[in-house]
Amino acid sequence: MAGHCDLSIFHPDDPWTLGVELEVRLIDAKTMKPANRSPYIFEHLPERLRPHVHQELLQSMVEIVTPVCGTPAGATDFVMKTLAELTRIGAAENIALAALATHPFERKEDNERFEDPRYEAFARELQIVLRNFLISGLHIHVAMPNDETAVRAYNASISYLPIFLALSANSPFHLGEDTGLQSYRSKIFERLPRAGIPEYFGSYREYCSLMEQLYTTGTIQSAKDVWWDVRIHQGFGTVELRVCDAFYDRERLRLIVTFYQALLHHITQYPVGRVYTQISKQNKWNAVRHGMKANFIEGDRILPLREQAHKLVNDLERSGSFEALGTDGDVKALHELIERETIARKLRRIYEETGDFKAVICEELIG
Fold first, then answer.
1. Which tens digits make up the pLDDT trace of 205-215?
2. pLDDT for 22-71, tens place per residue?
3. Judging by beta carbons within 10 Å of its beta carbon (0-12, 13-18, 19+), is residue 337 exposed, middle or buried?
């Protein structure tokens, strides 16, 4: 982690550019069980996609990583075109792709891990926690102009995590059971020792001081071993939102990326005050449990999460952030997205109507 606090990682000349990472599952098209076939996918990848399709912990998973993109639409188009290409490759072997944040009925025994020194070290340390780590997520990177803005954006993200979690909620089922939650993936992820809602920092130097302590004590080998719901990525000079469930919905993806980019632009002018960690945890739980129908605690008031999301979009519009980023044409669509039911509620409705988890997975299949 030498130079991990180097200020040259930031982007004063081209801030607000984007990167998106989406984890997707490989599914046996006949049984709908996990297919441990990512080695086949990697073997048949076109050369141009090799830098952008990465292996993950499980052989039944791949991760799509966009290049640096100038717009949310550009990042979304790259993800969708790559998914189409991977779907074409898998079809020859009856491998389907699905954006399942949790698989409705898989067991840990259905999956095989990659033999990788980093993953093996995690397995020795995390034991059953890692063996049950069968989840997929969406990460959004936004380039920061400098360290002060990065810390401000990071702190503000903590306050608004529940909105982005609710908009992406897509994991109501686990181990053949309806969890009663909108995003059970979030609760699985929180089992890791360096995951969930992080603490606020007064400066980038303070952030770096914690990273240095974790590194010096051998707790982490790199900053990648910190898995908070949001973090300052010290390799890319971005603030990275990590709270979202994986999902397959072009318009929802584009709008969530648009929303997050505008939020981080907005706080350069209008910083967000600190929120008690317990309030942040409660607001996140409300979103995990109820999705867009959750309550949101703001100061001494309780507001509907939907109302808070609409208010935030209006604030970003008034401050000119959407206009500055060239996404002001999406404001109406964002308000409409906030009113839509969550993906989790749609999947639960499909299961209630069919009693068939395979029908739920079919809804999530790509292509």
1. 999 999 999 99
2. 999 999 999 999 999 999 999 999 999 999 999 999 999 999 999 999 99
3. buried
DSSP 8-state code for residue 99: -
Measured between alpha carbons, how far is 204 from 191 in angstroms, rounded to an integer?
27
Beta strands in the chain (DSSP E): 18-28, 53-55, 61-65, 95-98, 137-143, 173-174, 177-178, 195-196, 227-228, 230-233, 238-245, 295-298, 301-304
Which of 54, 213, 185, 191 lies closest to 125, judged by CA? Answer: 191
Could you give the CA distance from residue 60 to residue 71 in angstroms, rounded to a whole number? 30
Dihedral angle computed from the Cα positions of residues 160, 161, 165 and 167, in that order, rounded to the nearest 10 degrees: 20
Are 303 and 296 contacting, i.e. CB atoms less than 8 angstroms apart? yes
Q: What pTM did the predictor assign?
A: 0.97
CB atoms within 10 A of CB 269: 9
Q: In the predicted model, is pLDDT for residue 82 greater than 80?
A: yes
Residue with tokens 């990590």: 242
pLDDT at 1 (0 to 100): 42
Which structure tokens are listed for 247? 């999902």
